[in-house]
Automatic annotation (TrEMBL):
Name of the featured protein: Glutamine--tRNA ligase
Biological process terms in GO annotation: glutaminyl-tRNA aminoacylation; glutamyl-tRNA aminoacylation
Alphabetical UniProt keywords: Aminoacyl-tRNA synthetase, ATP-binding, Cytoplasm, Ligase, Nucleotide-binding, Protein biosynthesis
Catalytic function, reaction form: tRNA(Gln) + L-glutamine + ATP = L-glutaminyl-tRNA(Gln) + AMP + diphosphate
Main location: cytoplasm
InterPro entries tied to this protein: aa-tRNA-synth_I_CS (IPR001412), Gln-tRNA-synth (IPR004514), Gln/Glu-tRNA_Ligase (IPR050132), Gln_tRNA_ligase_bac (IPR022861), Glu/Gln-tRNA-synth (IPR000924), Glu/Gln-tRNA-synth_Ib_cat-dom (IPR020058), Glu/Gln-tRNA-synth_Ib_codon-bd (IPR020059), Rbsml_bL25/Gln-tRNA_synth_N (IPR020056)
Organism field: Niabella ginsenosidivorans
Assigned protein family: Belongs to the class-I aminoacyl-tRNA synthetase family.
Domain tRNA synthetases class I (E and Q) anti-codon binding positions: 458-532
Amino acid sequence: MTEASKTEEKKSLNFLEEIVETDLASGKYKSIVTRFPPEPNGYLHIGHASSICLNFGLAQKYGGYTNLRFDDTNPVTEETEYVDSIREDIKWLGFEWANEFYASDYFDQLYEYAVRLIQKGLAYVDDSTSEEIAAQKGTPTQPGRRNQYAERSVEENLRLFEEMRDGKYQDGEKVLRAKIDMTSPNMIMRDPILYRIKHAHHHRTGSKWNIYPMYDFAHGQSDSIEHVTHSICTMEFVPHREVYDWLIEKLEIFPSRQYEFARRNLSHTVMSKRKLLQLVNEKYVSGWDDPRMPTISGLRRRGYTPESIRDFAERIGVGKRENVVELGLLEFCAREHLNKIALRRMVVFNPLKVVITNYEGVEEILHSENNPEDPGAGTREMTFSRELYIEREDFMEEAPKKYFRLAPGKQVRLKSAYIIRCDEVIKDDEGNILQLNCSYFPNSKSGEDSSGIHVKGTLHWVNAKDCFPVQINEYDRLFTVEDPSGEEGDFTGYINKESLKIIEGALAEPALKNAVVHDRFQFLRKGYFTLDPDSTPAHFIFNRTVTLKDSWAKAGK
Ligand code: ATP
Ligand code: MG
């Protein structure tokens, strides 16, 4: 490798990769350990996907490993359903964790750490109410002040803390605080709360505990217990880093280090779990995995591939500045990958009957390529005959000059089949178009065309004899504005009322009868689609993943 290309490579490292390389080069760590620490209080979303790709990606790149740690220190909100969905989503994204841990596994160890701090005179039991504690804390410009409880003896603190554990006190009666610095410019350093009393059932520890550790006294210690070398979190934890380091230093435990990057936000959606839960509870969507949700399960049901989501995470990268990424970029990543892997199929959404009046033969078998981008994908058989369906929108009775689809007297090619000409329009008494009578050119067959006829339009079609009805769910973005949370009023006021358009009675070519859930297709001229898990052999439902082109960009919305 030349010097120039070495620097080139160096430049393309993100700031976390640089930190890791420095730490490995200096021998600070022999190998790295990262963790992904979701709180099991909701389904994972595309922002979490960034964090997953980052944590697992770093460990993979540098030969380390990643733990999955459920941050279940808050007993009231966590549910097993969420734990299961989180596991499934990470696996689906293509990552494997080395160990599965729960912060609640460390409750005994954390209790012991707390006792150690008390013994060192570095923690005390405080009887103040939360209002009193807030008032004594001061403001960013005014120092806080300690109260009389901070003067308690080690023995008294040990006894009271034990009694807190044993359930002698009610919720809110006492807390355990670290004795750090009530005058610190960092408000979080002003004797932060380490433990609170909560008589609540925990999904794993049941009713064993009457006290639960706060975030600041669980996260860093859990990292340390697991020997996590690089603990990566989002920017709002910058002020917590000082407490993180202080506790590790005072407890003299493994020196995990915290690094922060900016949250990844996506336009035209909301990401906070609270808001996503509201969408589910208030039935704006059908569930956490509704294909309009920015959740990983929603994206999966929508037809996104893990590859496209990883590509998206890679493209937006990591940085220190928060920004909103255009939803269009995620859709672009989907198109990029789907174009390579999706099988091409024909589905007519709004059928118009075409009769080929000069077609005498029996059913004819044609071959159409499954994917022009992938020669290995082969071809499929299709049948052609006298009665077909084309898209109603592909016909215009009075067409402008530059109209290249079908019109009276005009000619088009039917994909993988023949060139046809529209000879006659059949209407009912009210003037509705019922059928087109067309003729075909027998010597114009795709691949062996000797007709010498040049047409500009190619239409998708299905054979009336073997097509079958399917339901199409056309999904669009869930919100009409870029940042629904940043707008006036409740974010639900900005829901896109046309985010789901259901089309019944679309007609599909027979090859689609073999579709299984999560197969991906390109319906020619229509977009990318996937089979919905609610489909049955009697009722196929296809979800639109994305259109073929970015229609929003064009519409200037
Ligand atoms: P919410 O605020 O919606 O409840 P959270 O950040 O509390 O989300 P956690 O389950 O605590 O959700 O997150 C697990 C990990 O994912 C954390 O390390 C968190 O920093 C990271 N994460 C969450 N949201 C994003 C995001 N939008 N971009 C990048 N990382 C994120
Ligand atoms: Mg959180």
